[in-house]
Amino acid sequence: MSSMMQGKVAIVTGAGGGIGRDIALAMAREGARLVVNDLGASMTGEGANAGPAQQVVDEIRAACGEAVANTDSVADAAAAQRIVTAALEAYGRLDVVVNNAGILRDRFFHKMSVDEFDAVVKVHLYGSYFVSRAAAPHFKEQEAGCYVHMTSTSGLIGNFGQANYAAAKLGIMALSKSIALDMHKFNVRSNCIAPFAWSRMIGSIPTETDAERARVERMKQMTPAKIAPLAVALASDEGRGVTGQVFAVRNNEIFLMSQPRPLRSVHRGEGWTPESVARHALPALAGSFYALDRSSDVFTWDPV
Ligand code: NAI
After folding, report:
1. Is this prediction's pTM over 0.85?
2. Res. 43: pLDDT tops 90
3. 190 C-alpha to ligand 1 centroid (Å)
């Protein structure tokens, strides 16, 4: 066991499987004591099962690490508070929160129901807020703490049929930046990772055409374990000074993602009318308009 996270206590939400499980295992290998949270829900957020969280705890303990299981839902304020309380009761401290729990309810926007929108925003955006907010007083008091939130290129760039998920994931980027700004003076850091990993979440991608099948084969190389090293490094003291950033990880590639800044401007001393906007401003800005890209239009090469 190495020791980049020796003495630290970490909560990883949704750590019963996929990316969260590998982050929890990697943090435990680096000496962290873990709260392995997972509701044990289906991919669409239905049901609950204590099995997955406990299994990961058993794996960590079998490798001589320390972990406790928690099966509260991140999507409820009181339950999220209990996740933080579980860390404080088990270990008396909390250093790291990894907001990773997630569900999908994909549907084209014009067919997406209120329930489908609400359920996804509740788990991702509210869930990240609830757990972060519950941890914030402790981080402030000890003048140290670190958040790592899972965002997605679905929100940062775009994808079909994911208005609920994309809205939540871009919201998480803003949440992370806001936490980074507001809590910087307490030595609290907050960063996002947009992961690419073959897990049950993308196991539902259609494989009808040859191109789709080839794409899925490439994606299978991107194991969830490839996300963990960046999460561990950010959560460790080696990550000091890194805050308010958005990273992406795809197999063996790590990206620093851009954040919106003005691209081009137009100005008229006398001000604008709708007509002058249409005739002057829009054509002048058009050279910098973005194409209607999806994530796969930007990440066009095979995972390295
Ligand atoms: P996964 O479905 O394998 O894992 C998510 C876990 O969250 C599950 O074990 C589930 O039981 C748990 N969960 C769901 N609702 C919960 C709740 N209310 N409270 C506590 N736990 C809950 O998914 P995967 O792929 O490992 O995704 C992890 C994170 O990474 C998610 O936030 C996802 O949006 C994000 N992500 C994943 C990508 C990928 O390529 N796999 C791409 C972009 C983002």
Report:
1. yes
2. no
3. 19
